[in-house]
Amino acid sequence: MTHLANPEGILWLELDGAVNIRDVGGIPTTDGTTTARNRLLRADNLQDLSAADLGLLVDTIGLDTVVDLRTAHEIDAEGPAPLRAYSRVRHVHHSLLPDGGDDALLARNRADGDAGPDGEPDRVVAHYLGYVAHRPDSIVGALRAITDAPGAALVHCAAGKDRTGVVTAFALEIAGVDREAIAADYAATAHRIEAIIGRLRRSETYREDIDRKTIDEHRPRAESMERFLREVDARHGGVRPYLHTHGFAQAEVDRLRAKLRD
């Protein structure tokens, strides 16, 4: 139930009911500033938050906007989260998966030419490119909700790794964080992967999917995020041109950049 920076500079929130929740403040930008604290949080599923967790998030940090990237099926299956009881916390839903889920996404979005260390196409990058190709409305909607939040915004999915990782990476790119630091923030989830997988295995919603892979296959790697962002550059001209194409205006980019920086 504390706001704790570890030696790597990661601002973990040590909560009772979530294991992969952190503040993306304090990350250096390319022009010598840092991202601001208590503006954007990233998290895993929020179903198990305790009363003390809620007090820290809402009363201490000033959380007022939750951006849920899960599918409607996940939300229905898991039921309402405790934060729903707070009328002053706005909840918005922007699923990054198309109908048919992950398998349909991968089948439609092979990362041709973007090989992993073993020379094979990177399935993680393929998934992330699928979000970009098929759910620009949700990516823009999520970033707009972060931009419009009067206080702190929190973006989450189930593990706080893939869908949350993509939206957070786009936000950090707009904030002026360099690619290496963006990838490091993404890969920080690896520190908590055993706890994340253990938690998801306790849910009937996620157990079967989680057990299809080993712990190591679930572990995020910085190089996957780096390759993904290079592919966004190659296919869409970069994060900003992609967002402009899909209706996230320059004025919104400027507002989000200002919000996320000290």
Question: What can be said about this structure in brief?
Answer:
With 262 residues, the chain is an alpha/beta fold. It is 47% helix and 11% strand. It has helices at residues 51-61, 72-78, 101-108, 123-134, 136-148, 163-175, 179-187, 193-201, 207-210, 215-218, 222-236, 239-245, 250-260, and strands at 2-5, 11-14, 22-23, 40-43, 63-68, 90-93, 152-156.
How many angstroms does the end-to-end distance come to?
25 Å
Number of helical regions = 13
Tell me the number of structural domains.
Answer: 1
Q: State Rg.
A: 17 Å
The strands making up the biggest β-sheet line up spatially as 1-2-3-4-7-5-6
CATH class: Alpha Beta
As residue ranges, the low-confidence spans are 103-121
Class by helix and strand content? alpha/beta
Helix content: 40-55%
CATH-level-4 superfamily name = Protein tyrosine phosphatase superfamily
In percent, how much strand structure appears in the residues? 5-15%
Quick check: average pLDDT?
A: 90
Output the helix-strand order.
EEEEHEHEHHHEHHHHHHHH
Structure description:
This protein has 262 residues and is α/β, with parallel strands linked by helices. The chain has one domain (2-256): Alpha-Beta Complex (Protein-Tyrosine Phosphatase, Chain A), CATH 3.90.190. The protein has 13 helices and 7 strands. It has helices spanning 51-61, 72-78, 101-108, 123-134, 136-148, 163-175, 179-187, 193-201, 207-210, 215-218, 222-236, 239-245, 250-260, and strands at residues 2-5, 11-14, 22-23, 40-43, 63-68, 90-93, 152-156. Strands 1-2-3-4-7-5-6 form a 7-stranded mixed beta sheet. Strand 1 and strand 2 form a beta hairpin. Helix 3 packs across helix 4, helix 4 (123-134) packs across helix 11 and helix 6 (163-175) crosses helix 13. It is globular, with a radius of gyration of 17 Å. It comes from Prauserella sediminis. Belongs to the protein-tyrosine phosphatase family. GO terms for molecular function: phosphoprotein phosphatase activity. This is Protein tyrosine/serine phosphatase. Residues 137-172 form the Tyrosine specific protein phosphatases domain.
